[in-house]
Amino acid sequence: MKSRVAVIGAGLAGCEVAWLLGKNGIPLDLFEMKPVKYSPAHKSPYFAELVCSNSLKSINIYHPSFMLKEEMKILGSIVIESAYRNRVLAGESLAVDRDKFSKYITERLRSLKTVNIIHQEVKDIPQNYDFVVIATGPLTSETFSESLGKLLDNNFLYFYDAIAPIIDSDSIDKSKVFFGSRYDRGGDDFLNIPLTKEQYFNFVEALKSAEKVVLRPFEREQYYEGCLPIEVLAQRGELTLAYGPMKPVGFDEKRIGFKPFAVVQLRKEDVEGTAYNIVGFQTKLTIKEQERIFRMLPGLEKAVFLRYGSIHRNTFIDSPKYLLPTLNLKDMPNIYFAGQITGVEGYVESAGCGIMAGIFLLFKIKDIPVDIPDAKTAIGALLSHLKNDTKPFQPSGIHLGLFDKKDMPKNADKKIWIRNKEEESFKNWHQQISKFIIF
Ligand SMILES: Cc1cc2nc3c(=O)[nH]c(=O)nc-3n(C[C@H](O)[C@H](O)[C@H](O)COP(=O)(O)OP(=O)(O)OC[C@H]3O[C@@H](n4cnc5c(N)ncnc54)[C@H](O)[C@@H]3O)c2cc1C
Fold first, then answer.
1. Contact (CB, 8 A) for 39 and 10
2. Which of 53, 347, 349, 398 has most ligand 1 atoms within 8 Å of CB, for mutation?
3. pLDDT at residue 98 tops 70
4. Taking a C-beta distance cutoff of 8 angstroms, is the pair 288, 211 a contact?
5. How far apart are CA 277 and CA 149, in angstroms?
6. Which residues have a Cβ under 8 Å from the Cβ of 127 and sit 6 or more positions away?
7. Where is 146: in which H helix or E strand?
8. How far is the CA of 169 from the centre of ligand 1 (A)?
C-alpha cells in the first residue's frame, strides 16, 4: 500500500495523528528520530515521551484540562487511553507511570498495519507524499528547524522551558516528611516537606544567590510564564514561592505538629513510588547548586538525583500568521502542523491538537468539508488560541478565558455555565463528524 501521508515526530501529537489516520485505514509513514538521535530532553526510546512532569493535570470536572481530556477520550485518544491504564494516584490530577505510559502507546501504534514506522531524523520537508504533518515538538532537531525556517521566512519564535529534578525515594528521610494531599483530595499520594519561616527564607536566599547555567550570547532569556524556573520566581519577591508552588495551605497542622510557613510537595513518578519529582521546582541551576540547595530541605539532606532539572529551548511557529483554522499552511495547504510547535502548550493540549490535525487531514483526504468545533467546546477553545493575532503570539495551555462566553447570563456561575455549554456543544459537533470517522 502506498503511503500518502508522512507524519514527522512520534511525540504526543504525532502519535495521535498516526493513531487516528491509521485506524481509519490511511496508510502512512511515521518518522521518529529516536533512538538514532535524541533531543536534549528526550531520554526514552519509546514514543509519546513525557519529558518533565508525569502529570496530565486536573481531573476536577470543572477544570478546562479535564473537559479537554473528556472530549479527547470520546475522540479515541491513545494518549488518554494510556494515561488511565497506567495511572499513578496523585490527588486530583491524572498522573502516570511515564515508562509504562509511553510503552503502551508505542505498542498500540506498532500493532496498526497501516502505520509504517521509520526511525530516522527528517532533515527536509519530504517531497514524495501527498500530505505531510509536522509534529516535531518544541525541541525540533536543529537541521529540520533550519529547513522549516526557510519555509516560514525564518520567522520562528521561541522561549526557554525548564524541567524539575527527580529524586530516588530511598534517599528521602521519611521521618522528616509526611504523606498526604492538599485538602485531603487523594489520600497519601504526595510526600510533603513542611518548612518553618526561617527554613523558608534561608532557602529563598540560597536560590537568589545560586549559580545558574549561562545561556549562550545569541540566546535571549525569555521564559514561558506558566513554567518559570524556581530561582526566577524567587527573584520576583521573597514571598512569591510561598504563594506559589510552596503554598502551605490545605494541610492538617495537627498532623504536622506546627503551622508550616511553606510546604514543598513531591509527586510519585511510578506506581511503586520508587521515585518522586519535586512539584514546581523546574530549574536552570547548575548541577552542583541543585545538589547543595535542594539538600537544604528537611528530608532531602541525602537526596540522590535520578534526573537533574535543566533548561531547553522551546520552538513554535507564529500560527495566527501561517496556519489556516484546519492547522495546514495558508500557502502550502498540504503541509499540516500538530502539537506544541503550533503554540499550544502542555502534554494534553499537544495531544489534543494532534487529534484535530488528524481529523482535519482525514476529511481533506476523503474530500468532505469539515466542521470546526466552536470555542464552547474545550478542543475548539484550545484551537481558537492559534487564531489569536494579538501580538506577540505566545504559547498557551487551555484555560477558561479561551472559552466562548458571549451569551453567558450576568448572574451565571461561570464554571458551571461553561461546563454545561461545553458538554452540549461537543455532543452536537461530535454527532456531525462521527458519521465519517472511526474513533
Ligand atoms: C523541557 C520541557 C519540559 C516540559 N514540561 C512539561 C510539563 O511538565 N507538563 C506539560 O504539560 N508540558 C510540558 N512541556 C510542554 C509540552 O507539553 C511537551 O513538550 C510535549 O511533549 C509536546 O508534545 P509534541 O508532540 O508537540 O512534541 P514532543 O512530545 O516533543 O514530540 C516530538 C517528537 O519529534 C521527534 N523529532 C524531533 N525532530 C525530529 C526530526 N527532525 N525527525 C524525526 N523526529 C523528530 C522527537 O524525538 C519527539 O519524539 C515541556 C516542554 C519542554 C521542552
1. no
2. 347
3. yes
4. yes
5. 35
6. none
7. helix 142-151
8. 26
Q: Which three cell numbers stand for residue 234?
A: 524567587
- Ligand 1, CB within 6 Å, residue ranges: 8-14, 31-34, 39, 41-42, 51-53, 121-122, 135-141, 144, 161, 163, 312, 314, 339-341, 346-347, 350
Examine the pLDDT at 101 and tell me if it is beyond 90. Answer: yes
* Amino acid symbol at 189: D
C-alpha angle 60/62/348, rounded to 5°? 65
Locate the ligand 1 atom nearest the alpha carbon of residue 13 and give its number: 25
User: pLDDT band at residue 211, thresholds of 50, 70 and 90?
Assistant: confident
The pLDDT of residue 220 = 53
Beta carbons of 343 and 4 less than 8 angstroms apart: no
Instruction: State how far the Cα of 30 lies from the Cα of 290, in Å rounded to an integer.
Output: 38
- C-alpha cell recorded at residue 116: 509504517
My answer on whether omega of the bond before 373 falls inside 30° of 0, hence cis, is: no
Joined together, the cell numbers standing for residue 188 give: 497519601
Q: Please count the CA atoms within 13 angstroms of the CA of 260 that sit on its side-chain side.
A: 27
Classify residue 209 by burial, with Cβ atoms within 10 Å: 0-12, 13-18, 19+: exposed
Distance of alpha carbon 192 from alpha carbon 268, whole angstroms? 11
Domain architecture of the chain: domains with CATH: 5-159+315-433 (3.50.50.60), 165-308 (2.40.30)
ipTM of model: 0.99
Tell me the H-state helices in 161-302.
197-208, 230-236, 240-243, 253-256, 287-294
**Ligand 1 atom with the shortest distance to the CA of 15:** 25
Looking at 255-407, which runs of residues are DSSP E strands?
262-268, 275-278, 305-307, 310-317, 335-337
User: In this structure, are residues 294 and 285 in contact, taking their beta carbons and an 8 Å threshold?
Assistant: no
Looking up cell 532539572 gives 309
Assess whether pLDDT exceeds 70 at residue 391. Answer: no
- Is 71:379 a contact under the CB 8 Å cutoff? yes
Secondary-structure breakdown of the chain: helix, strand, coil percentages, each rounded to the nearest 5: 35, 20, 45
Place of cell 481509519: 24
Contact 370, 363 (CB under 8 A): yes
- Scan for cell 518548612, then name that residue: 195
**For the purposes of burial, counting CB atoms within 10 Å of the CB of 435, is it exposed (0-12), middle (13-18) or buried (19 or more)?**
exposed
Please write the tens of the pLDDT for every residue from 329-342: 999 999 999 999 99
For position 218, what pLDDT does the model report? 45
